[in-house]
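Saturday, quiet lab. Running sequence design on the structure tokens for the scaffold JK sent over.
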């Protein structure tokens, strides 16, 4: 293969297009990595509509990870204290299918769970939904989007009637005021942020407000940084709304004709006068008033948010609080404005569209809606009533199910819950109790592989063809440019083969992923995410933004059938009466506020170079040098009180666990608040897991855990009587694979 192949960066939800060309170029030496593997050449795709040729360090170095630490063959063991042995695909799948059959007969299908990932392509997601929810009749499919975007989903659905960010990236160039809350976009969504920053720099009247307890690189360039106390977002949002209403920045015609529930909202925000809000948030009244004035005097306000909003026991209410501001000022459905969630993962959006959470079905349908269940059952040709009307197990419910013994088989796909779930020591203990865990991933070792009975090698980015949807609803065909390593297979093929062996051969007749996609898009017909005009063949020409019904007009407003780039341009929303809903919600604050025993609030987040649990980025030299170790950000005043100096090792303890980090003394973090990066699992350091500290309390609507805040205490390590160190769980052998020992 010599031609350039078009694909998508498989990291964050910005969804940057990539051009990939083979390592061997005429007349040039082959570039190789430290293990001697040829490195494919990757650069930004100038023709991709979302990224226009831009990539960050992760996208630019992605090719260096392709051959490192790959899982190449199926492997099996009877218990976790045994070594894995290599087996054939047939033996591995026979083992899994026999276990599934026996569980269905004894405990029922609800004893089977699959935990997937925003790394999966839409075709992978769709086939998994069909197997679990359609064929087996259990809704126990959840994905790590539960930890990432599920509050945004719930907020959009409750306020606007359907999931789906209404904005597009062009709005970054058109806005008068960017309101960035709970997002360090400069590090976590750099290409989106660069575009916004360029617009901001060029146009001096354009304002940028950043709400974040940390002075992040995003906050550094803002006109106004509101360093609110963690857990006071709702106070701030209601406080801004209070001022907008008081000052008359209010679109009464839009509110009366296009929205509902305004009186209840107005009553709630009447309790949020500036002095009270400023005191609760820990900001000045002047700054609060400035933020409201920026909002009120701007014609086009664009809100951007991410995990800092979503990962909260009030995540849904926060999302709705942001949308409230857009509704009261009529800032939605027009160029340059609207509520715009920035997706964490490359295909979290595709997962949402294809039903990849335990409360969803394909086409933005919900398991609790009888008509929507019936539509899917009819389409799949399965008996009426097969799809359960109950939510399946969320990610955290799966952990509880392992603890109670209600789960007999856990199938994990392309994610690393032994690092990424909250209260990770409890998570790891639950995983140890799993009677049977299938781990399907492209990489080995990972922390989660230690808990698996079966390892299934998955083809990854570049080795399979499929689709992904980015934050602005643009669907890109990610084309394969080389064969899978070893015996690895695409996720959808593995899941479909299990379905066939379970006796559902007629439901999985697909010869390739294009056929999977062709079937899937039929389930989006006349839905808010209508993609019936999209196919792999059409996407091979260029990426396409949905809605894209099969009339074949780019970006259609489903209300008017007119071409558009944004949703709700006709100001009719996806609710039964077409009106958007105001929410009326009082602030409750953190689930675990600081107290005398645990006096600090610990927050966590990502760094510019690393991705999630470092499965890929931890193997890339440039990124390792950029971020060699985790750290604890602490304000100088707190550091002085505890006699902590720069680089001192500090033990952080919560009610659930402990971790150790070198101190980074900085005014970037507010007094009383601490920050650690979340990328380090047991493979990358001793006692450096951020999630050893976090708790699993979650939002009642979205079930998204409050990963962003927990109460902790600090102990400088030098002061401790005994400094205990975890023994290495991992020992590298000569073939550069890793033997995993489970220690009790
Ligand atoms: Fe990849 Fe996100 Fe960086 Fe774009 S911004 S190159 S999608 S990690």
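Result came back. Writing it out in full:
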């Amino acid at each position: 293969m010599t031609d350039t192949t078009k694909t998508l960066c498989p990291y964050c939800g910005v969804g940057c297009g990539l051009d990939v060309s083979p390592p061997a170029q005429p007349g040039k030496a082959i570039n190789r990595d430290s293990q001697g593997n040829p490195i494919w050449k990757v650069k930004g795709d100038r023709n991709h509509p979302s990224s226009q040729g831009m990539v960050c360090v992760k996208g630019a170095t992605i090719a260096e990870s392709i051959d490192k630490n790959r899982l190449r063959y199926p492997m099996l063991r009877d218990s976790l204290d045994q070594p894995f042995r290599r087996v054939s695909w047939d033996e591995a799948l026979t083992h899994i299918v026999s276990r599934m059959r026996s569980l269905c007969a004894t405990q029922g299908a609800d004893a089977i769970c699959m935990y997937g990932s925003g790394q999966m392509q839409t075709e992978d997601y769709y086939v998994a939904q069909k197997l679990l929810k359609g064929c087996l009749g259990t809704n126990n499919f959840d994905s790590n989007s539960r930890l990432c975007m599920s509050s945004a989903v719930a907020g959009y659905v409750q306020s606007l009637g359907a999931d789906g960010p209404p904005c597009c990236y062009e709005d970054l160039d058109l806005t008068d005021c960017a309101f960035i809350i709970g997002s360090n976009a400069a590090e976590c969504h750099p290409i989106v942020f660069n575009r916004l920053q360029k617009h901001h720099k060029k146009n001096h009247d354009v304002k940028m407000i950043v709400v974040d307890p940390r002075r992040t690189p995003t906050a550094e360039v803002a006109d106004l940084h509101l360093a609110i106390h963690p857990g006071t977002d709702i106070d701030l949002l209601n406080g801004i709304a209070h001022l907008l209403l008081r000052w008359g920045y209010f679109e009464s015609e839009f509110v009366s004709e296009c929205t509902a529930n305004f009186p209840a909202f107005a009553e709630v925000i009447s309790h949020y006068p500036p002095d009270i809000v400023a005191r609760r948030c820990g900001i000045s009244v002047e700054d609060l008033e400035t933020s409201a004035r920026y909002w009120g005097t701007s014609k086009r306000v664009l809100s951007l948010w991410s995990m800092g909003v979503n990962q909260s026991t009030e995540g849904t209410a926060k999302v709705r609080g942001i949308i409230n501001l857009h509704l009261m000022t009529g800032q939605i459905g027009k160029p340059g404005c609207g509520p715009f969630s920035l997706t964490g993962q490359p295909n979290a959006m595709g997962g949402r569209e294809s039903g990849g959470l335990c409360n969803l079905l394909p086409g933005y349908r919900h398991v609790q809606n009888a008509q929507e269940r019936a539509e899917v059952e009819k389409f799949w040709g399965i008996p009426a009533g097969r799809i359960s009307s109950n939510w399946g197990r969320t990610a955290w419910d799966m952990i509880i199910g392992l603890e109670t013994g209600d789960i007999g088989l856990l199938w994990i796909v392309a994610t690393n819950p032994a690092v990424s779930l909250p209260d990770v020591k409890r998570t790891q203990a639950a995983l140890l109790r799993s009677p049977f865990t299938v781990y399907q991933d492209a990489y080995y070792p990972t922390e989660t592989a230690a808990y698996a009975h079966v390892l299934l090698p998955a083809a990854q980015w570049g080795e399979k063809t499929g689709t992904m949807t980015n934050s602005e609803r643009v669907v890109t065909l990610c084309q394969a440019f080389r064969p899978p390593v070893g015996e690895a297979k695409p996720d959808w093929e593995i899941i479909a083969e299990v379905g066939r062996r379970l006796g559902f051969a007629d439901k999985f007749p697909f010869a390739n992923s294009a056929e999977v996609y062709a079937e899937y898009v039929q389930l989006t017909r006349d839905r808010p995410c209508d993609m019936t005009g999209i196919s792999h063949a059409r996407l091979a020409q260029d990426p396409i933004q949905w809605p894209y019904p099969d009339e074949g007009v780019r970006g259609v407003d489903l209300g008017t059938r007119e071409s558009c780039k944004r949703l709700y341009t006709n100001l009719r929303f996806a609710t039964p009466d077409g009106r958007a809903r105001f929410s009326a919600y009082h602030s409750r604050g953190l689930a675990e506020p600081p107290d005398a025993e645990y006096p600090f609030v610990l927050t966590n987040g990502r760094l510019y170079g690393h991705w999630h649990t470092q499965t890929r980025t931890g193997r890339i030299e440039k990124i390792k040098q950029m971020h060699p170790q985790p750290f604890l950000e602490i304000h100088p005043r707190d550091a002085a009180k505890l006699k902590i100096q720069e680089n001192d090792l500090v033990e952080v303890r919560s009610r659930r666990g402990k971790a150790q980090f070198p101190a980074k003394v900085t005014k970037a973090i507010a007094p009383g608040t601490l920050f650690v990066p979340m990328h380090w699992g047991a493979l990358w350091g001793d006692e450096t897991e951020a999630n050893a500290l976090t708790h699993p309390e979650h939002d009642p609507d979205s079930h998204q855990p409050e990963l962003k805040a927990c109460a902790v205490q600090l102990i400088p390590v030098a002061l401790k009587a005994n400094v205990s160190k975890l023994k290495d769980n991992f020992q590298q052998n000569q073939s550069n694979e890793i033997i995993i020992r489970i220690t009790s």
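Notes for JK: The CA atoms of residues 123 and 516 lie 6 Å apart. The longest strand covers residues 658-665. Ask whether to fix the surface positions before the next round.
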